[in-house]
Write a structure and sequence with these properties.
Elements: H1 2-26, E1 39-46, E2 56-63, E3 66-71, E4 74-79, H2 81-93, E5 100-107, E6 114-120
Antiparallel strand pairs: 1-4, 1-6, 2-3, 2-5, 3-4, 5-6
Length: 123
Amino acid sequence: MGDNYIAEKAKGFQHKAEKEHAEKFSSPGLFAAIEDISQRVVRFVAGGPVLPHGTKVRFLEEHRDLITVLQRTSRIGEVDQAGTAELRALFSSHPELGGAVPAKVINGPDWSGAYDAVVSHME
């Protein structure tokens, strides 16, 4: 008798958990509400030697209109206009970043010397 009761209760709990997971995974914005793990792709122009895929860089807000790209402590480039606006929004919504955020190069350079970098403000 006790085993049957426990088995029935286990089925009920399993069904409830599966239903909750199905609802969660079927929602259209599963990760949209989780701001902490979001990643942004930012385009920047860098002169000098080619930056290989995976190179770590840092975006630094020098003033309102300029976000520079640093590799270690050297200034290597600037973020384009669209990326500047996006990073300014990130910096204003997350003041704890202090106007600087790490990134990794994922593409580039193209014919204009532009690179793409993934910014993950959880790094």
